[in-house]
Amino acid sequence: MNYQIGPNDIEIWQSCPVCSTERHVPITEVYIDDLNFFTTGYCTNCFFVFRTVRPAFSWFQQNWIKRKNIADKNDYSLASPLEQRRYKRYKNLSAVFEKISEKRTILDIGTGPGTGLRAFKDSNWDVTEYEPDPARAEIAIQQHGIRMLKKLEESSETYDFVTIIQVLEHIHQPYDFLNNIIPLVKTGGYIYIEVPDLVNFVNWRDALYLEHMNNFTVNTLTLLCSRFNLALRYRLFPKTTPYGATHIGALFEKVEHNPDMDTSLDDISKDICNSYVKGLPISSPVFPIKYRISEINNIAITTNDNYPVVDKKNRFINMRQSKNIIEKLKFINLKLKSTDNSINFVRKRLALHFHYISLDILKDPDFEDLKFIKINKKDYTNERV
Ligand SMILES: [Zn+2]
Q1: What is the mean pLDDT of the chain?
Q2: How many angstroms does the Cα of residue 47 sit away from the middle of ligand 1?
Q3: Are residues 237 and 278 in the same domain?
Q4: pLDDT tens for residues 64-73?
Q5: DSSP letters along 90-158, please?
Q6: How far is the CA of 239 from the centre of ligand 1 (A)?
Q7: pLDDT tens digit sequence for 196-217
Q8: How many angstroms does the Cα of residue 248 sit away from the middle of ligand 1?
Q9: How many A from CA of 19 to the centre of ligand 1?
Q10: Containing structural domain, residue 166
Q11: Same domain, 191 and 318
């Protein structure tokens, strides 16, 4: 499918969603013809990475409907391996929360078909879900009997725990989004946020990854949350697949007053720029790196034309389909080097050719454990893992 985009579909974002300053530098720019519709930049004050030029939310809404018309083939029943894994992850999470607090009401924001909350419910939690996608919300209600919140702003209830798991990175305006949610957390209660870790997650392909609006580090996430009287109390180390990268898990307590924050963050601009060339088969690119694609044929990753080739004038990196066997081999190699799920990728390739090998040898033996640490109140901003 070709998702059309024009100048009126694009918004330019000036102020940093974390610290509100308007000084940011572009790292990458993506074009269709001469239209720059997607730019990734970082704030020179707090080093938050966000999309400074991007399709407006309304554009996504229209195109999600288009995409939805191609039937959703996912199996959301508890019998599917993906949902079983999700169930296990939430079960681990509930066990961690139970070690931290005796309180038992939870609101989960945006976890689709409800498998995760089912795990909490099975551990005797009082569970509520908020899910904007009506099709997925229906599954949660029908299959798991989960109570659904219709609108965030209309709720007068407050909760001991609110969880936002792999949602915040997709949100156009994370400050406004959190601003709507924080009143739902009891004072002395907790909010748990899980996002991909900039350091572990980002490689050159992120420049083209259309569905992520923000890339957090522990520091930028903590800084954003400190604006809402949220103090970081625990770090959790969740794994999204048995093979893949570690994400940031952060448990914040809602306190009476703004937690003291040391806002003099380390300059990580070099690390950020290095992340955006990680795996790119082109030497010494000039920043901002300019990509050109022929069309948006995938709403999540922009384009399936996957191979980057520098144009003759050296101004753009053109993304186009691999044309010959050498490029295809190079491309496989590129994926191996650059994707965060590279082990998963190897596993799939092996499975195609060697049906008799037990692939469990590639599994992370610690996958079942959800590690967590308590943060020292005084120096949590310096916490780096
Ligand atoms: Zn900033």
Answers
A1: 85
A2: 6
A3: no
A4: 877 766 556 6
A5: HHHHHHHHHHH-S--EEEEES-TTSHHHHHHHHTT-EEEEE-S-HHHHHHHHHHH--EE-S-STT----
A6: 27
A7: 999 888 889 899 999 899 999 9
A8: 19
A9: 4
A10: 81-262+366-382
A11: no
